[in-house]
Amino acid sequence: xxxxxxxxxxxxxxxxxxxxxxxxxxxxxxxxxxxxxxxxxxxxxxxxxxxxxxxxxxxxxxxxxxxxxxxxxxxxxxxxxxxxxxxxxxxxxxxxxxxxxxxxxxxxxxxxxxxxxxxxxxxxxxxxxxxxxxxxxxxxxxxxxxxxxxxxxxxxxxxxxxxxxxxxxxxxxxxxxxxxxxxxxxxxxxxxxxxxxxxxxxxxxxxxxxxxxxxxxxxxxxxxxxxxxxxxxxxxxxxxxxxxxxxxxxxxxxxxxxxxxxxxxxxxxxxxxxxxxxxxxxxxxxxxxxxxxxxxxxxxxxxxxxxxxxxxxxxxxxxxxxxxxxxxxxxxxxxxxxxxxxxxxxxxxxxxxxxxxxxxxxxxxxxxxxxxxxxxxxxxxxxxxxxxxxxx
Length: 392
Known about the structure:
It contains twelve helices and 19 strands. It is an alpha/beta fold and 392 residues long. The C terminus is likely disordered.
């Protein structure tokens, strides 16, 4: 029999009450991280924001809007669909660069939505120049060169060949020359200086053809490396989201993410035994196990089995056994019974156990942790303050 208090097809509970875990994104902290990086930049350097992969999994609409209101005017995404979505969010004025380049047949979309394509291959450049000349369009683009990473970008040989051809870049209207640092998260790595030297050489040659072209080399780590790497445009990504961009040294960024998972059950173990799939972990008599409503389907990586750590009542509690699809078990034996109640929460990511800490326990990097965060979480956004006129 249908309850008189229920309406068919309509939920009567709050989304946060139905969720197994709650992800809180502090947009004020994110904006402050952007300002911290902006203050470190050399004068005149445009501090942009990389918001690819749905703003590193935290929500493109909320993140881009907060950054735009703070004064960010250049955004970088990976794919054209993401760029089009971003344009609809932030309006017509800010710059948007599409990092993975233009697929064949998408040139008109770049024009229609005012998206700068990043041209990384001779084929990219040939196709874009042919389109620009045929259609008689003058549209800003970005030329990417490879300075040692052997990933995207014109090789030194390919670049020099195009420079030597009188018509090698005919039809191009470049906003900037860019490259990508391979080891910027290691401040003393010799690759950083080697890439800088080669980039300066290639930039000098490029400006013989395009004297007004700007330059971009610095990612998050590159901003921290110092002014030599900043040039005209900086492209911070992971640091905006609270991840330490360097392997060593203090954490210069504010935490942005808090994730807490709901306790479904607390079990007091009667006899010594095993826990979870594969019976990988042993448990002693009298131990107390909390099972939370979160697993690898939510992006809590399976590699965190018996290596991850949560926080309950200010006490660190280890993951016990394997991470399941929808469930994870924690040893909460050292936590008072008053704090280990079903319906309560264990902090999974917090100021105590950071994104970097979770990544280290999983044997990966903060990028993967953030971009793996699932869509089943209830998401809360703490608003960023509206920037005042003249405020950085």
